[in-house]
Design a protein that fits this description.
The protein is α/β, with parallel strands linked by helices. Helix content is 36%, strand content 15%. The chain has 19 helices and 21 strands. A 7-stranded mixed β-sheet has the order 2-9-8-7-5-3-4, sandwiched between helices. It has a 4-stranded antiparallel β-sheet with strand order 10-12-15-14. A 3-stranded antiparallel β-sheet has the order 16-21-20, with no helix packed on it. A hairpin with a 2-residue loop joins strand 20 (525-527) and strand 21. Helix 6 (109-121) crosses helix 7 (136-144), helix 6 packs across helix 12 and helix 14 runs parallel beside helix 16 (400-423). Residues 427-450 have low confidence and may be disordered.
Length: 540
């Protein structure tokens, strides 16, 4: 009792706010709901994930009765971790449908699936061969396991700064080089399709890895719809990758944070299930599992919606060939395959003059500028903006009217860009280098160009650097220092530099340019006197 008395003042302070709320002196507000209600009423159209596009795709009571469908692992119900009843039936049905050894529902997104897959395949401290364009979740697993990363850097699609596919030839060359120094990887990880829709030859890459018995993990987060499209073999699941992770919420009508993990190699099943218990919550959301099942079942039972979707895309892409300054990426022989559901527009030319101003038409139009104009003036919200391009994500939930409206908007902006270029006395032949980077050549005759991606020197593994004490150093003065964290534009989350790599002049220039272009940069800190970057403290 004495102890309680001595701490009474502390308890009163600790709970004084709660008391104020109870007496009505302070009222709680639903900040999230209020903001989202206002946003929803603003009539913004989502050219981004999730794939349901905020529409009642299923035409039943699922969306209206969320609380009534929110269960837990109670008597008479089932447990996703130890399925025995209806969840077991659902997972077995998915396994049969996809033709896998096992298929698992992920309630914490593709990130949980990627962490699970890497932990199941790579012992701590092993080597991993990965595309440099892998998602940040792969990089985080590499750091957690203290893996030794070796990189395959894809080439660039013609006239862009967009990565092409990773080819079987590149994979074979990389393995041959590693074999010479006895550094064969424990696992290979690539992304297909990429954020921009580029698909790699998974079957060909798998054939290269077969003699080495190296498992192949494919981050197919952006390809959950591929098994339902006419060319189903473009999916890494059908192509035989050992572990495939798909974000059902990105391109199928499933709730955000839902994904599938497919296993095509039987001996990996026990390890995968061990790590699922670690990387999945112990209370998996019934709403998430229902939405995944509904999305897959609906997609499997309604092939006609994908056929109609394909026709809408074909018509839209054909019309976009008429645009001059806003060009739609339409790769043909320049990569193994391409997901035409991704609309990647590059922009060239100069800013139109703002109404009522005398501003000069000599500021180059950029990806962030186009994204802002589409959202602020036309309520069309894109998925992401790169330096010279924007990405719009589509799904079968996007109707004909939405595509027609989008085209009319793009046509109008394109005409304004043309007028601005004419006023500035410039044409396609007079554009500077920055403009020319965003002008797509004729894809019929285009060839891949060598990547301009700069790979910094790796001084230590990302995991070793991550575990050291760090400090912030001014980017302009950081040359020669060792990065302590990942720096990347998000989305898509591809690292410019990783922990353990040396910061050189090119890295400084690349990050500075990305910041100045207006990209959303993660891993840097903005202060009044400049940009700061985390660096490792010297080892004492």
């Amino acid at each position: 009792m004495v102890l309680f008395a001595e701490n009474r003042d502390f308890l009163q302070i600790r709970f004084s706010g709660l008391s104020s709320y109870r007496t009505g002196e302070i009222s709680l507000k639903e900040y999230i709901n209020q903001y989202l209600d206002r946003y929803r009423k603003g009539d913004y159209y989502p050219w981004h994930m999730p794939g349901h596009k905020r529409q009642d795709v299923f035409k039943d009571d699922f969306w209206e009765n969320m609380f009534l469908r929110d269960f837990t692992e109670a008597e008479g119900l089932d447990d996703l971790h130890e399925p025995e009843l209806f969840m077991k039936d659902s997972l077995e049905q998915m396994q049969r449908f996809y033709g896998t050894e096992k298929t698992y529902m992920m309630v914490n997104g593709a990130t949980g699936g990627i962490l699970t897959a890497l932990y199941a395949c790579a012992p701590e401290g092993a080597s991993v061969l990965m595309g440099r364009n892998c998602h940040k979740s792969v990089c985080h697993a590499v750091s957690l396991l203290n893996l030794k990363p070796e990189y395959v850097v894809p080439e660039l699609l013609p006239g862009t700064d967009i990565f092409a596919d990773i080819t079987p030839e590149q994979m074979e060359q990389a393995l041959n080089e590693l074999k010479k120094t006895d550094r064969l990887p424990a696992v290979v990880v690539i992304t297909s399709p990429t954020y921009e829709g580029v698909i790699s030859d998974i079957c060909g890459i798998k054939n290269v890895l077969e003699p080495y018995n190296i498992p192949l993990i494919v981050d197919e987060a952006h390809g959950a719809h591929l098994p339902f499209m006419p060319k189903r073999n473009l999916s890494a699941v059908a192509a035989g990758a050992d572990l495939v992770i798909q974000s059902t919420h990105k391109t199928l009508p499933s709730l955000t944070q839902t994904a599938l993990l497919h296993v095509n190699r039987k001996e990996l099943v026990p390890k995968v299930e061990r790590y699922l218990h670690i990387f999945q919550t112990s209370s998996p959301s019934y709403l998430f599992t229902q939405s995944m099942e509904k999305a897959v079942v609906y997609a499997g039972n309604h092939p006609e919606v994908f056929d109609a979707y394909r026709k809408r895309l074909k018509h839209f892409r054909k019309k976009c060939k008429e645009l001059r300054h806003i060009r739609l990426l339409q790769p043909k022989q320049t990569c193994y395959a391409y997901d035409k559901g991704k609309l990647v527009f590059t922009v060239s030319g100069v800013h139109p003059a703002e109404p009522g101003t005398d501003s000069r038409n000599d500021i180059p139009a950029t990806g962030p500028w186009l994204a802002h104009v589409l959202a602020a003036e036309y309520q069309q919200v894109v998925e992401m903006a790169g330096t010279h391009h924007v990405i719009l994500m589509t799904s079968f939930a996007d109707k004909k009217k939405a595509f027609e409206h989008l085209y009319e908007i793009l046509k109008h902006i394109d005409s304004e860009l043309t007028e601005a270029a004419d006023k500035a006395g410039r044409n396609a032949d007079q554009m500077n280098h920055a403009d020319s980077m965003s002008v797509l050549p004729d894809m019929e005759n285009a060839v891949l160009c060598s990547t301009g991606f700069h790979l910094p020197e790796q001084v230590m593994t990302p995991g070793a650097a991550w575990r050291l004490d760090s400090s912030r150093e001014k980017l302009a003065e950081a040359e020669g220092s060792i990065a302590a964290d990942y720096v990347y534009a998000y989305p898509p989350g591809i690292a410019v530099i990783t922990p353990g790599e040396k910061i050189d002049g090119q890295v400084i220039r690349d990050i500075t340019q990305m910041v100045e272009t207006g990209l959303n940069m993660i891993g840097v800190e903005y202060q009044t006197d400049g940009i700061y970057i985390p660096v490792t403290e010297p080892v004492r």
